[in-house]
Amino acid sequence: MPRSSPAQWALHAPSSAAIVWASDPQAELAMPCPKGANQRPPFKKPATDGHSPAPRGKWGLVIELQSPPPTATMTPPVATFQEPIEATTLRSKSSILNSASNSTFADKTVADLAGRWDDFKFAPIRESQVSRAMTRRYFKDLDDYAESDIVIVGAGSCGLSTAYMIGKARPDLKIAIIEASVSPGGGAWLGGQLFSAMVMRKPADAFLREIDVPYEDEGDFVVEDWTVKHAALFTSTILSHVVSLPNVKLFNATCVEDLITRPHADGVRIAGVVTNWTLVSMHHDDQSCMDPNTINAPVIISTTGHDGPMGAFCVKRLVSMQRIEKLGGMRGLDMNVAEDAIVKGTREIVPGLIVGGMELSEVDGANRMGPTFGAMALSGVKAAEEALKIIDQRIAENRA
Ligand SMILES: Cc1cc2nc3c(=O)[nH]c(=O)nc-3n(C[C@H](O)[C@H](O)[C@H](O)COP(=O)(O)OP(=O)(O)OC[C@H]3O[C@@H](n4cnc5c(N)ncnc54)[C@H](O)[C@@H]3O)c2cc1C
């Protein structure tokens, strides 16, 4: 877009005014010319009275008024609409059914709605309410969980099982789950070769009963009940248990980019994680200076899966930090050997960092196991147990 002509980006304006970019050699408040046609400089109050045409020169944001001219220039919208801050207690079906509200938009059952679509209407909304409902909660969570008790890296089958066990056993602990993908669940939405059924070998059926997932007993191993026989049943169930826990926050689409360390008698202690939006992490090669955020925590549990573009993240970082010599390298497939090894080997690898699930195969060189998921659930149970063994000591070190 040439500098000399007013830009024609249409911004939001009331019917009596039009907001345009124009140039002004004298205007003290003028903005520099934007570099690209798609970049909008931030909204800035113009130096004109709002009636004069925009002078030429440097670029600035001015208001061109249409009739009738108001008496003052338009300023950026003032936050005039403040909806009350609601309590953030979760509402269950029974609490809703028991509530006694008589307003038009009182809590209805689906049966109340059915067949009455001619009169149907959503409750009124102002768009900013939607924005604030999201941002207020998210930024409060960022604030609350900047100091966590436990961070779980990766929300695959192992990470979610770990979160479930700790979150349930210790409601006093604040647990942040950092998941790089938009969709948590890792590789547990399908079984092998993209088939639907999920196989869990006994005794991992105990975990299915724990979270109330039906399964079909086939003797030495169990498959989820044929009526719902889909890995997604396990993953959606454990996920819903975990995100419902009041002491757990899942930050998805967020990536762990590094580990926070502290000096320790054993060399170094892991004392938190360095995070960023995953989309930002993916662009460090072509955009510079996109610094991350951090979460401090005395115990980190890494369950980022086997080596791959994103997997085995913390173990790979331990190698580059020279805390372990090299990646173990996942071995060939042997279900019998692999599942036992992953569960038994789930442990604190360096002070403050527990590794579980398939990521552990990159520490110990365990065999791959293929599409059998019992080890992931029970590795989560063991990771929780290990975390609860060390949490008090690591919290004390963290305070020192
Ligand atoms: C393509 C594919 C290949 C498979 N290959 C094998 C195999 O070779 N051997 C085997 O035994 N099983 C394999 N499986 C089966 C099964 O998926 C895994 O065994 C199982 O999912 C591992 O569970 P997990 O919880 O350890 O890790 P995953 O289910 O892999 O979950 C790890 C999670 O961590 C997240 N994550 C990764 N890095 C970061 C980071 N830096 N920050 C935040 N989050 C992060 C990922 O997005 C993911 O959601 C494979 C599955 C798939 C889909």
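^ flavin-adenine dinucleotide complex. Residues 374-399 form the longest helix (26 residues). The domain at 150-399 is CATH 3.50.50.60 (FAD/NAD(P)-binding domain).
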